[in-house]
Amino acid sequence: MQMLVRGLLSLSYLFFLSRAWGEKRVVCYYTNWSVYRQGIAKFSPENINPYLCTHLIYAFGGITKDYQLKPFDNYQDIEKGGYAKFMGLKTYNKGLKVLLAVGGWNEGSGRWSPLVADADHRKTFIRSVIRFLRTYDFDGLDLDWEYPAFRDGGRPEDKDNYAKLVQELRISFEREAKKSERERLLLTMAVPAGQEYIDNGYDVATLNKYLDFFNMLTYDYHSAFEPQANHHAPLYPRKGLSEFDFKYQLTIDYTVKYYLEKGADRDKLVVGIPTYGRSYTLVNPTANTLGSPAQGPGEPGKYTKEKGYLAFYEVCENIDKDNWKVMKEDPTAVGPYAYKEGQWVGYDDEDIARRKAQYVREEGLGGIMFWSVDNDDFSGHCCKTRPDQKRENATDGGMNLSYSLVSSTTFTTPTNPLSTPEPPTTPDPCTDFSCKDEGTFTSSGSGLRLCNSLLPIAEGFTNPRWWPSVVAAVQILSGGQSLI
Predict the structure, then answer these.
(1) pTM of the predicted protein model
(2) Over the stretch 440-475, which tens digit does the pLDDT of each residue have?
(3) For the domain with range 23-274+348-375, which CATH number is right: 1.10.150.910, 3.90.79.10, 3.30.1300.10, 3.20.20.80?
(4) Relative to the CA of 112, which of 175, 192, 286, 484 has its CA 20 to 30 Å away?
């Protein structure tokens, strides 16, 4: 009887989410190398909450020298059961779609360009894709070539050849579904934000015919190697920026409108939200506003260990334990930045994530995407020292930014003012909570928690945690309805 009640509760929750989201997608990338991180940064599929995303994407698969799909890390993906654990999440959420991304930055163009240029190579690749996805029970493929016509091995004809591959993949997916009497494999693509990359590498109108949706990489508009400290994922141009300044085009709003102009359907555009920041080392520690001179990338993070890059949990640890100062110069257009002693980082917090989700609703777009869930504060680490913290705000002097995941916020936009629906009061998610039974629970001060015995939980975690950025954005995407 207890199992029946638990099952009904889970079904009721899933029914609520399906109604709340409507046709909007919440796409979440998981990086398989995050399992090698240490301490609080170690992340594996066991830490994924299966109810917060409509689509989960496993990054990455690779391409063999004879143009077949292969695991990126055979040890973790196959021998240690990475794929199997990922697929196990569908046991809880029957509507969850799980895709495999192929490519990524490290793959470059060296394999992609000759693959798409030759009809026989494309056939070989397509056959291997279908066999691979069906063998490991993936629901689709996410193409992530970074980038056609660029980097080592890229050629001008990549643009047309990439479109041919997509067309042939879609036709083959449809043919295989009909023959096997199984649901058609999904076909999506990660696409760049920069106009030069779009123009030279992507036949948007043709791709739009065959793709289920586009995952827009609407971040890294600025790199950590630029001579000025800039936020890497602005929604709109910040105040005072001239429309003749090239940085005026380096925004999510401009990218969305450009894809629409090139022939993409609104409901196929999924806006990317980063769960990491880009960091800089300032030339002068006292010159620390947006656009201040920088002499290179910031120091590596304690856990991610990459120059110019900080996961959200590293950013908040710097703020809470090392007293970095937080500023919000233009919160409707761009996320906050934080600095201390010559180190500077721009990042997206929950508030700007909500604002971007609201933008998706206003513009009638296809959904939101997160790169990546393993960079968010998945362990609740940041909650330990900041449940009631107030951060200084450059524009309104002391905005309460306690980390209630779905706190009430009203936003304004430069072009189409619309107030965010006020959600119900939500308990503090940082309050301690431990699982005493299997199922989905709410309790005073805990928010929604998932407890289970079927899916193994990684060491140090009692249950899959909330992701602050994901929950904040999903709350707005769902029309302001509470997720608990």
Answers:
(1) 0.83
(2) 444 444 344 444 444 444 444 444 455 677 777 877
(3) 3.20.20.80
(4) 175
